[in-house]
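Morning. Coffee machine broken again, so started the prediction first thing and wrote up yesterday's gels while waiting. Chain of 492 residues, entered below exactly as on the submission form.
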Amino acid sequence: MIRYCLTLVVLFGCVASARADKTAAVYATFLPNDANSVSVVHMDKILSSQRANQEDWTDKQNQLFSEGHIGLPPWLKTFVLASLVHPAVPEEVWATAIMDIPEDMTIQQIASKTNATMVTLADQPAFQTSTGAYVVELPDHKLAGYRPGHRQDAAAWIRSLGSGTNSLSPYLMKAAAADEHVVMSIELIDMFDVDFVKTHLEQDKRFASQQGLIPRLLPLLTSLQGVTLKISVTDQINSVVTIDFGDEVGPSAAIVKTLFITALDDTGASIEEFSKATITPAGNSVTLTCSLSDQSLQRILSLIVPPRVPEQKLFASSEAPEQTTEESAANQKEDEKNATQRYVRAVSGMVDDLQRASMNLDNYRKTIAWHETYARKIEQLSTRNVPKEVVDMGLDIAAKFRTLTRSLRGEQIQIGAENKSVVYDYKVNPGYINANIWGGVGYGQPTVNWTSNLQEVRERQAAAVIAGQSSRDKIWAEINDSLTKMKKIAIL
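Came back before lunch.
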């Protein structure tokens, strides 16, 4: 035990003396070697950029964080998250993270402010969040996070930190060591089944004009190593997507871009600017370069979810002068007002973002992942001091986001006339509703063999999505009605 603690102190003490731009690389050496994705955020670099200073991003970031719209606080310097994900499903099997906290912040304070109970995990102070993730104290003002809440797995990883047995793969380590402000990378070796990809490309109308390229493209796709997104902020938001292969790309760069865009579209995680990105082939890689809007950056950051911690201002000294009963009641009322307004602003921001996307049906169908992300974020918003009536309406909006997701996948939904409840009719489910390049079967079973009906399924799904527009309009009307009621209660 003593040797373990001393090892952690020495290892994490080395981080303090490391160059700032190499901190993430040091953190990455403690993350499990069976991870296939890594995300890095250098918040201090983002908020010290020219654009951030000109537009006062620190205050905006603090507001977005306090409202729960994003999970990254402005006081965060470096955050590194590694996970094992299955893009075909899609699902996150587990995720681990290491982040730094201010020197005047302790894990006991964080647990207290989040109404969590301190526990001991792997002989270290820890607590479990409301979503089940474990947060563990490490030396030198660091926290480790593990989700889901599998205690034995979390403890095993924490105990391994001082063993020297961890480290991400060389591909992910290279990404973690990059100088850019935000880095997201996924390793894709052995991800694709050749026969499925061949069938997918042959039957997908989006590649109808490129059928002659398929024989040459298949060997290249089977050598795919991974995809890395790097974002840096100067006077604009610059992004570079690098798609790495084991073989030389040659003249296939354009169709590689098309494949990347369609893969994002099929999973409902479309970023509009990527379709206009400049293509640059270089040996075994293809890079897509473009600038991003604030909204696109916010959506990307919303995918990086650390263990939830409170705002820094909540860690002010707890010492306060004694209050009269009247003063205490007045302060309680003010706390409820502020908490309610913060909650409603967070829900309102997510509703506004998705509603803007809903104005265009073609683009709207590419936002399924954002519906799921925002539904989850609403469910994880802090409800402390928020009236139950408001929380219930917020959770109902989250449920409606998921209903919209089902509709956009081609499932028929009905709105009950009497109580406006949502009714699902699975009889018209087109079946293979997640027919994407990853090769995953979606949320329903196909009625005929996938090797012969992929395009038929896509056409039926598209028809079902179009037919469901009137139902989605009704759902949006209900969402806006609930949001109006919430704003009246919050006096916004």
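Residues 325-358 form the longest helix (34 residues). Going to sketch it on the whiteboard this afternoon.
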